[in-house]
Amino acid sequence: MSGSFTTTAARNIFYGGTMFFLLVFLALTFQNEQIIPKRDRREMLSNPQIAAGKKVWETNNCVGCHTLLGEGAYFAPELGNVTKRLGSKEAVMAFIKARPVEGIPGRRSMPQFNLTDQQLNDVATFLDYVSKIDTAKWPPNIQG
Ligand code: HEC
Question: In terms of residue numbers, what domain contains 17?
Fold first, then answer.
């Protein structure tokens, strides 16, 4: 049996395998090149309110407690899909405005940020934008 595995056979497996995976790699690269420009909505660049909302997000260090599409701290809920979870942009704004809610045993509480109506609207617009990014169905459930 071992005699039938020749140097030529080994070489053919090497070249064949290399060729096969090179083709798979090229096909996946090509597919990515097709998909990614459609996912990247480039809205952030054209809509100043989304950019302003991102700024509110950053300057208030929301990511110090929350994750956004998985990136951030694990103290508070994932917010990449929060608009879908709470139902609307208005509900997100009302939630942030109504904090803190304290005294519920076992529940973490979010501080009041005293955002202006404009900042509140901006950050909710940013979160709404994030919730519409095509993330290939991630997170897998609505809780995030
Ligand atoms: C100190 C930690 C902390 C920071 C900083 C923080 N949050 Fe929160 N946030 C929480 C906690 C804890 C909850 C869950 C509280 C609750 O359900 O009452 C929450 C919940 C939320 C929710 C509702 C999530 C859901 O699914 O119900 C939204 C929206 C939200 N935060 C937005 C923000 C934004 C925007 C900022 C930045 C301006 C921010 N948070 C900063 C702690 C924080």
Answer: 1-39
Look at ligand 1, atom 39, and give the residue with the nearest C-alpha: 62
Q: Whose CA is nearest to atom 29 of ligand 1?
A: 92
Contact by Cβ (8 Å): 97, 86: no
Indicate whether 67 and 23 sit together in one domain.
no
Q: Tens digit of pLDDT for each residue in 26-61?
A: 999 999 999 888 777 777 778 999 999 999 999 999
The answer to whether residues 136 and 112 belong to one domain is yes
| C-alpha of residue 25 to centroid of ligand 1, in Å | 41
Exposed / middle / buried, residue 141 (Cβ in 10 Å: 0-12, 13-18, 19+): exposed
Nearest CA to ligand 1 atom 36: 62
Could you tell me the pTM of the whole model? 0.82
